[in-house]
Amino acid sequence: MKNLRYLFSLFTLLSVLSMPLVSMAEEAIPIPAVRININSADAKSLADGLNGVGMKKAEAIIAYRETYGPFQSVDELMEVKGIGKALIKTNRDLIALE
Q1: 28 belongs to a structural domain
Q2: Tens digit of pLDDT for each residue in 41-93?
Q3: Biggest alpha carbon distance in the chain?
Q4: Which end of the chain has fewer beta carbons closer than 10 Å to its terminal beta carbon, N or C?
Q5: What is the pTM of this model?
Q6: CATH number at residue 65
Q7: Residue 44 neighbours by CB under 8 Å, 6+ apart
Q8: Do the domain assignments include residue 86?
């Protein structure tokens, strides 16, 4: 019986030691998202920084703002061909106007 307890303790210790170590502090610190200013960003920054936006949509955003001036709201992006509500919803927290 004593040997069985010893083996169980050893097995438990080895199981705990083999678990990946994750710092609680690392889990608690949120990583801030980098906001992209749609009124000043170049095409590469728009494509790299916004989900679902490639170079073609990024260039369309720039063409729109060059034609109509700076965006007054994030929702105005829906006026750009190829950009709809879902894309705006996905990226709303990543978009800055200034």
Answers
A1: no
A2: 999 999 999 999 999 999 999 999 999 999 999 999 999 999 999 999 999 99
A3: 84
A4: N
A5: 0.67
A6: 1.10.150.280
A7: 55, 58
A8: yes
